[in-house]
Design brief:
Elements: H1 2-5, H2 12-31, H3 37-48, H4 60-80, H5 83-88, H6 90-116, H7 120-131, H8 138-143, H9 150-179, H10 184-215, H11 219-239, H12 244-254, H13 264-288, H14 298-326, H15 330-341, H16 345-356, H17 362-405, E1 413-416, H18 420-432, E2 442-448, H19 453-471, E3 477-483, H20 487-498, E4 502-506, H21 520-528, E5 532-537, E6 547-551, H22 562-576, E7 579-584, H23 586-598, E8 605-609, H24 613-619, E9 627-632, H25 643-655, E10 660-665, H26 678-681
Parallel strand pairs: 1-2, 1-4, 2-3, 4-5, 6-7, 6-9, 7-8, 9-10
Antiparallel strand pairs: 5-10
Helix pairs in contact: 2-3, 3-13, 4-12, 4-13, 6-7, 6-9, 6-14, 7-9, 7-14, 7-16, 9-15, 9-16, 10-11, 11-12, 14-15, 14-17, 15-17, 16-17, 18-19, 20-21
């Protein structure tokens, strides 16, 4: 009992309890004062730490969890970033990285020499602190759904380069003080090690992840596997002379496409980071702050003011320069400043190294700690306010586009399941095909037409598994078990009752010679309903798919559901981060391109001319085991139906029985029967009429 009444607290359970209470209560209390939770956790760490009320000692738990927290923070920044936009803005990110490093470095060396009379080694060391930064406010950006924003992506890319260069500067300062001079050899060794490290991680991690995810789909196992990869990358980076945060960020980029944003795995990873690791790190940073340094004399305050002013001003100038160079919005510029002005891991490391080698005196060390606190506070406030303004601005623009172009018809999906083995995969596919803005409730459906106990038990288990997969990513879902005269009647009636637009179902497995490829249930549903039907058969986890191969029949653009299936495919490719190959006639390809441009889908596309059935047979030979072949079907009475489509089931059964397959039958006629005409589906401006604006063209 005495351990609980003495300070600092040493009982492990009591330490963890106090930390959890801080993580729980501080954001709740400071939210009313409009103080960002990030700043609140740092201030709480100052209050309970050894330099505050000494309630908690900064023991090994804070060192371990704090180090893992900053590594986890950088990993999440890498895994959540949009790879398509990263490739698109890689040049801009590199330029910004050089700008946000060289400007603080050059100005910092001059200020340190002039204001403090510092030697060259000390001046360069302090300047490397101004130049480096940590994306401590990245969770704020993610919370507002802006991780795909151009300014955010440029900042993340620039961060990696700026921190890398700052760490090289720090390493060279240490070499000069320990070896007596600058050595090109050590710099060359670091460069070679970095290249080898990048190549090994870049090639080994994707192959290993694909292999692992195909064999192990247990949620806990996958989370532990990802954490092991991240920590391995961080430790290896430290071993070759880099900072662990660089390795964690790079690992996040490498495994990015195997962790879709809207997936249970991503939800679990984000939860673990935001609930424990990152708050632990922020509280640990606060414990380093010595409030008494503020009253330790004017010397500390003067040094702190100069260092803080130089760091913030140069980062602001770098962000402003990027705004002018890349024509960014004002809020994007301020978000870039907020993201790149926070100081943590690299700055703390430089402080410890400088003090260890006698390059920093006591006043400079205390001033550096004050600079870290102020920069973190400024970064948090600026990022929070700028992200809110930008989110509201984008929402207003989106609303204006909806008014001008017609509201996007978000899916009302019904996921029909009966097999517990495939239920989760089918539900995950349905979630990945939803638009991120879609908040409508999904329906997990199990239909039965008899009371066979074994089938009822299996169906109910499948229903619960599918619903759990949706709830894991916070998608609203309704579990529905229905008894009807037959399976088809049950599915059709539920879709009518709930006003559903899509039915997602597992593909029929042929068990008897008299069976057809699609099965009687699917064939009857196609005759009984005009709604979109999506049939799935995937032998590998959908998040390990490398490429979508989409076969589109000629005149497919005339179907009522043309735009809808293109959008669903665009959503799937965006979430998976994979390339899409559309095999379609040139005329149909124009309309597909138009829908994707109107929806602003960030995917890599390729278009192959397949005007005839023979063209498609030749192209389909390119389908690999890691691809997902998407076949757009056509009902008998549809415009795009032809005699070739009659042969399609037999061809798929004969040549693609072991391939991953997605068959989509778009909506036919229905409520929009009077709109089946070319004008309704022309989403792209034809080259022959450059002055004409089509109804669904995106407003610029």
């Amino acid at each position: 009992m005495k351990d609980f009444l003495t300070f600092p607290v040493t009982e492990p359970a009591a330490i963890f309890l106090l930390v959890l209470l801080i993580i729980l209560l501080v954001p709740m209390l400071l939210r009313r004062l409009k103080i960002p939770s990030l700043v609140g956790l740092i201030l709480a760490g100052m209050a309970v730490g050894p330099h505050g009320f000494n309630i908690l000692a900064r023991d090994a738990s804070f060192s371990v969890f704090g180090q893992v927290g900053i590594i986890y923070l950088m990993f999440l920044a890498g895994v959540e970033i949009d790879l398509y936009h990263l490739r698109k803005n890689l040049r801009s990110g590199t330029i910004f990285g050089l700008l946000t490093f060289t400007l603080p470095m050059a100005v910092g060396i001059f200020v340190n020499r002039w204001a403090f009379g510092a030697g060259w080694s000390t001046a360069v060391l302090l300047a490397s602190m101004y130049a480096s930064h940590t994306l401590i406010t990245y969770p704020t950006v993610t919370r507002f759904g802006l991780s795909g924003n151009r300014g955010v992506i440029i900042s993340a890319c620039g961060t990696m380069l700026a921190v890398f260069l700052a760490l090289i500067a720090l390493a060279e300062v240490v070499d000069i003080n320990t070896q007596g001079g600058f050595r090109w050899r050590s710099l060359a060794i670091l460069g070679v090690n970095t290249i080898i490290y990048s190549a090994v991680i870049g090639f080994a991690y994707p192959a290993l992840t694909r292999w692992f995810f195909r064999r192990y789909n247990d949620a806990v196992t996958q989370v532990i596997y990802i954490l092991a990869l991240v920590l391995l990358a961080a430790v290896t980076a430290q071993w070759i002379g880099l900072e662990g945060i660089l390795g964690a960020f790079y690992a996040g980029l490498v495994v990015n496409r195997y962790v879709p944003v809207r997936s249970p795995l991503m939800s679990r990873l984000v939860f673990a980071g935001n609930a424990i690791f990152i708050p632990y790190f922020l509280i640990g940073v606060g414990m380093l702050m010595d409030v008494r340094a503020l009253v330790g004399g004017w010397g500390v305050l003067y040094v702190a003011a100069v260092m803080t002013g130089t760091a913030l001003l140069t980062k602001w100038l770098a962000a402003y320069g990027a705004k002018k160079l890349f024509t960014l919005r004002r809020d994007e510029f301020t978000i870039m400043f907020g993201l790149t002005s926070g100081k943590a891991a690299a700055t703390i490391a430089a402080t410890m190294v400088g003090y260890q080698y006698g390059l920093l005196d006591e006043d400079m060390m205390n001033a550096d700690v004050i600079m870290i606190l102020i920069c973190c506070a400024v970064a948090s406030v600026v990022t929070e306010r700028s992200a809110l303004r930008l989110r509201m601005s984008l929402a207003r623009e989106s609303l204006a586009e909806d008014v001008n172009e017609g509201e996007r018809q978000n899916a009302r999906q019904v996921v029909a399941v009966a097999n517990p083995v495939t239920a989760e995969e089918i539900m995950n596919l349905a979630i990945l095909m939803r638009h991120p803005d879609n908040t409508r409730e999904m329906t997990a459906l199990y239909v039965r037409d008899n009371d066979d106990p074994s089938r009822v038990t299996a169906g109910r288990n499948a229903l619960h598994i599918a619903a759990a997969a949706a709830m894991a990513v916070d998608v609203p879902v309704c579990e529905l078990e229905r008894f009807d005269i037959n399976i088809v009647a049950g599915m059709v009636n539920v879709m009518k009752e709930r006003g559903s637009s899509d039915l997602i179902i597992g593909m029929h497995r042929k068990t008897r010679i008299v069976d057809t490829f699609f099965g009687t249930v699917i064939e009857q549903f196609l005759q009984a309903s005009n709604k979109m039907l999506i049939m799935s058969r995937c032998f590998i986890p959908v998040d390990t798919v490398r490429r979508l191969m989409v076969l589109v029949p000629p005149k497919g653009e005339y179907e009522t559901g043309f735009r809808t299936w293109v959008e669903r495919t665009g959503n799937l490719a965006t979430q998976l981060g994979c390339r899409v190959v559309f095999m379609a006639s040139p005329e149909t390809a124009r309309y597909i391109r138009g829908v994707l441009e109107a929806g602003d889908y960030s995917i890599r596309t390729e278009y192959r001319n397949t005007s005839t059935w023979d063209d498609w047979i030749m192209q389909s030979a390119d389908v690999e085991a890691d691809d997902l072949m998407v076949v757009i079907g056509a009902r008998r009475t549809s415009i795009s139906f032809s005699s070739d489509m009659e042969r399609l089931p037999g061809y798929l059964e004969k040549y693609f029985n072991a391939h991953n397959l997605l068959v989509i039958y778009p909506e036919q006629f229905g409520a929009e029967a009077d709109k089946v005409q070319p004008m309704d589906v022309l989403m792209h401006r034809p080259e022959s009429t450059p002055t004409r604006r089509w109804p669904f063209a995106k407003k610029r």
